[in-house]
TrEMBL record:
Keywords, sorted A to Z: Signal
Domain spans labelled Dienelactone hydrolase: 116-229
PANTHER family documented for this protein: BLL1128 PROTEIN, UNNAMED PRODUCT-RELATED
SUPFAM superfamilies assigned: alpha/beta-Hydrolases (SSF53474)
Domain of life (superkingdom): Bacteria
Provenance organism: Corallococcus aberystwythensis
Molecular function terms, GO-annotated: hydrolase activity
Keyword RNA-binding: no
A Pfam family per the record: DLH
Annotated signal peptide: 1-24
Stated name of the protein: Dienelactone hydrolase domain-containing protein
InterPro entries: AB_hydrolase_fold, Dienelactn_hydro, Plant_Biomass_Hydrol_Est
């Protein structure tokens, strides 16, 4: 076998291996450590829905999940595991939950990811994956929920719906989002000693009563009586009786 033929065979083998790896990623959550994906400034967890590779022209909904302070890290393979410590979409996908959307879960050294950074992640996903731009959803916990509120206040026109959990939307002007008709469903525990439940109560009340025009559809708020800071586990896994995924996907721009 000539050297050129050997090289061609090696290249063909790599192409076949790469194709098989891409197919295997469907329905699985995959670590994408910092520096391994061109155009992405963070390490992140990637989930592609079943059927993604079988429908090469189809666009899929995108959900971006933002973590809290306890899951902050530099995005390497080891630190990305911190995100899996929470009962949230990436962990549910690892545990076998099938989702009908693309899931991107970035990790940042400081959980208070800035609005411009969130926007860059969404724009990256729109280029890197086959994202339906009319079905982009943002959700987060604690600090990630605070930044979900912050992003929604500015880029409401890019989002089909948001689900902030144990966050605080008091410091931002949500009236433009209310006027745009952005669907919001906030969750909080009444015994949360880390982020006051009024961070969700006041934000939802402002959208529904203070803003003019008022939110339409009305912003939703679910309070868990006696529950502390972790109000997200029971929300994301559905054990509290709520299906936030069907709710989100029921809306599009």
């Amino acid at each position: 076998m000539t050297a050129i033929r050997r090289l061609l065979m090696l290249c063909l083998g790599w192409v076949l291996f790469s194709a098989q790896a891409a197919l295997a990623a469907q329905g699985e959550v995959v670590a994408r450590p910092y520096g391994t994906v061109p155009g992405m400034n963070y390490g992140y967890w990637e989930y592609l829905p079943l059927g993604y590779d079988d429908a090469p022209t189809e666009e899929f909904p995108l959900v971006v999940f933002l973590h809290g302070v306890g899951e902050a890290g530099n995005g390497n393979a080891t630190n990305l595991e911190k995100i899996m410590n929470r009962r949230a979409p990436p962990r549910l996908a690892r545990d076998g939950r099938d989702f009908p959307f693309i899931l991107v879960s970035p990790q940042r050294f400081n959980a208070f990811i800035q609005v411009a950074e969130i926007d860059a992640i969404i724009e990256f996903a729109k280029v890197h994956y086959r994202v339906d731009p009319k079905r982009i959803y943002l959700t987060g916990i604690s600090a990630g929920a605070i930044q979900t509120w912050a992003y929604a206040a500015v880029h409401y026109d890019k989002l089909a719906a948001v689900v902030p959990i144990a966050g605080n939307g008091n410091g931002v002007n949500l009236c433009p989002a209310a006027a745009s008709g952005l669907p919001v469903w906030a969750f909080h525990g009444t015994a949360d000693g880390t982020v006051s439940p009024y961070g969700s109560i006041n934000a939802v009340n402002a959208m529904n009563t203070t803003c003019s025009p008022k939110a339409n559809p009305a912003a939703l708020l679910t309070l868990y009586t006696g529950v502390g800071h972790d109000s997200w586990g029971r929300t994301y896994d559905g054990s509290a009786g709520h299906d936030v995924y069907t709710w989100m996907l029921g809306y599009s721009l």
